[in-house]
Amino acid sequence: LQLHHSGHYHCRGQVSTAVPPWRESELVTVTVHRVSVSGVSLWAQPPGGQVALGDRLVLSCAVATGTGPLSFTWHRGGSEAPLGTGPHLELQHVGDNDSGHYHCRVSNGDSVAESVPLNVTVL
């Protein structure tokens, strides 16, 4: 189901022995709601968020429940400025300034949920 499927529905059928032969049911109202986003989790490659200076780090975000469309933003520390969007954040050549606590935030337009922060350590 999608949000645009909300509306009023009825069925119509033919009863061959009736006059008139067509009959309609009562109207039924269907309202489609979004499911709130919850269970946001985050993991890293390499595992544990420990990465060697100059190597690549990939952070991935997943949602246990929630209907979309979903939007993802990535944050480090207490910063509200997003580092990226989408379910993955890739840092090609990590530097010392990339260490810190990262989390992803997911929204479906009606609700927002965040992952537990992951501490990334550049070795």
From TrEMBL:
Any Pfam family the entry gives: Ig_3
PROSITE patterns annotated for this entry?
IG_LIKE
The way this protein sits in the membrane is described as:
Single-pass type I membrane protein
Q: Name the GO terms of the biological process aspect.
A: cell-cell adhesion
> Highest taxon of the source?
Eukaryota
Keyword field: Disulfide bond, Glycoprotein, Immunoglobulin domain, Membrane
Name of the protein this chain belongs to:
FCRL1 protein
Q: Which organism does this record belong to? A: Cettia cetti
In the UniProt record, the gene name given for this protein reads Fcrl1_0
